[in-house]
């Protein structure tokens, strides 16, 4: 540990150095490395070894105490890797990322055969535990589900603060329980699902008709696109009572384009998820694109909400009895713990 006069010599040596071209030069306190300020400049000494009030510092006990506290804090924050499950030794910087290869499921199966059903991997700077055994999975997902209910939030999901309002990403708390209760009652009850049975049958029939007509015309069918459009129309009718995958609607085409872009960016591997230091610069631009597309799709949804609000005020209006009507009823009733932000992010 650097003490007393050695501290001043230490600072004098490194004050004007520039290892790797990253450290600043000069004697100005503002130009010194940040870690100097946080860890060493609490000694109340200036460059001449004098205290701030102009008197010579008589002892270093106060400084030693602060440095010891800092060292203790660092030791406490250091993870205990000895308690982790077995796994491959991580490489420098990239750790075990390269071991996943282009077929991660096969790579993980090989690792499980080598190290057992529970494997610890270091993906960049993120420690990941992989479970590939039914018994272990049952322990995590059933017996201790509350402990493991919270998700690690990808960097892209934080766009437009979606992680703070979405029921899919919120931690288990009072707000999450409120949103879950609303979803269970207005979406997933057997009564609600049975009420939309005819709608589901109609959308599936349209899909079959489209496939049959394409076959008769000798036109290739993009199964993925056709299934996506059917699912999107089913969801949009359940929520808004409109088709958002209608090729003849400009709004539907824009909405579909934005949804595809968002799904593509969320599913894309992001370096910022494995190296948290990169989150501020967003090197792949994932969060920037999601912020842009999320803002556009929020405006489209807000337009649908405004149209519904106007129609509800009309004298001859008829209720759609869809999810949007149910959510607007909660807003009018001033349901506790539920506001407009929750509606926008719930519909996303």
From TrEMBL:
A Pfam match: p450
Entry GO MF terms: heme binding; iron ion binding; monooxygenase activity; oxidoreductase activity, acting on paired donors, with incorporation or reduction of molecular oxygen
InterPro entries in UniProt: Cyt_P450, Cyt_P450_sf
Biased composition (Polar residues): 46-61
SUPFAM superfamilies: Cytochrome P450 (SSF48264)
Region (Disordered): 46-86
Gene3D superfamilies: Cytochrome P450 (1.10.630.10)
Record-given protein name: Cytochrome P450
Organism: Dillenia turbinata
